Amino acid sequence: FLHYTILIWKICSGPDWYEFGDFCYKPFGDKKTWHNARSSCRNLGADLVSIQSMKEQSWVESYLYMATSNVWTGLNDLAIPGLFMWSDEHIVTFTYWAPGEPNNHNGFSEDCVEMLHQTGRWNDKSCTQLNNYLCKFIT
């Protein structure tokens, strides 16, 4: 148990980890596909960000000024089209879609969800799009 606590402390206090509530977040400025971004987060023992409330959404938005593109979240409907789920298995209790979203624009399969860096609103997008991303770690 002590080792686990120390491990958590090291991860949250590492470079560019930001704490909010019971979670630590790490923004990445490089651009990756959704799957590659998720792999990067998983390699750190984290996952792509899941957002559970407007309070958390607002806190995450405060870091969007660092983004040079839209930002991948863990929300996706890869398993069942039209049923959006968080990659970290949190229940979807809150959404912040942009107007008219999700829409599978022009009939494309848009199974992954990005946060628009100008507004913070969510948009479904092709998982092969290259975006910045945000990892989230449970403390």
Automatic annotation (TrEMBL):
UniProt entry tagged with the keyword Disulfide bond: yes
UniProt keyword annotation of Disulfide bond present: yes
CDD domains per UniProt: CLECT
Keywords annotated in UniProt: Disulfide bond
Pfam families: Lectin_C
InterPro entries, per database record: C-type_lectin-like, C-type_lectin-like/link_sf, C-type_lectin/snaclec_domain, C-type_lectin_CS, CTDL_fold
Domain of life: Eukaryota
Limits of the C-type lectin domain: 20-136
Name listed for the protein in its UniProt record: C-type lectin domain-containing protein
Organism annotation: Cyprinodon variegatus (Sheepshead minnow)
Organism placement in taxonomy: Eukaryota, Metazoa, Chordata, Craniata, Vertebrata
